[in-house]
Amino acid sequence: MRQITTFALLTLMVCTGPACSAPPPAQSTATPTTAAVAENAPTYGSVRRSADGIGKTYQGREISAVMGWQGAAWLEREEREREERGSLLLQELALEPGMAIADVGAGTGYYARRMAPLVAPGGTIYAVDVQPQMVAMLTQLAAQPGLDTLVPVQASATDPGLAPESIDLALMVDVYHELEYPHEVLQSLVRALRPGGRLVFVEYRAEDDDVPIKPLHKMSEAQIRKEAALHPLVWERTADTLPWQHVVVFRKR
């Protein structure tokens, strides 16, 4: 019963508010800057837009629509730890004091604020988001006592805005499947990683029909590895210790 309720709540949070009542935004025809586009980058395609997608395809999948800032309450729901066991994810990350971490698609800072004390003293959490409303929430969060290691970052659709070789780990929790330009963002993240740095995808398991999340908001491990293989990344391991999500870990070559 709890799973059915959560699924209904996700449907509500993704599909209510001005962003859903208005016509879907037109897909941009602007070409990303040369610096953002990899040589021989795979071609994006198009399909008839599904209810939960944007009509743009990449590596055989339709890119999901973004869960907008109007869904912030779902990210902070009381039952999230019980359902997703984020505390186990933090153990999987094995964070240490002094590390520089990018929480990409940080949203309300649910994970950023939990990681901040784990990298202190001397560490930094770059809380990255493309939505200005989310960055405003992160800025308020960073002003709270004990969160001086948290640095909000405004990203663009193609670039998370991180300096080259500036981070030890990049984390994307239920974010990658929504990226409008996944190839360019991964390229930028790999550039931002220090040698041997880790890139961690956390995605709802598409292989499991019992995971109560809409299909376009899930990814299979095989699909994640297929897309990561287009970049200088080496698969390290996949942890399935979380109830609903994969934790797929890569290292920069």
From TrEMBL:
Which residue positions does the secretion signal occupy?
A: 1-21
In Gene Ontology terms, what is one molecular function of this protein?
methyltransferase activity
Where is the Methyltransferase type domain positioned along the sequence? 103-201
Keywords tagged on the record: Methyltransferase, Signal, Transferase
Taxonomically, which superkingdom? Bacteria
For biological process, the GO terms are:
methylation
Read off the Pfam families from this record: Methyltransf_11 (PF08241)
Keyword presence, Endoplasmic reticulum: no
Q: Which PANTHER family match?
A: BLL4992 PROTEIN, METHYLTRANSFERASE
* Record protein name field: Class I SAM-dependent methyltransferase
- Tell me the organism: Luteimonas flava
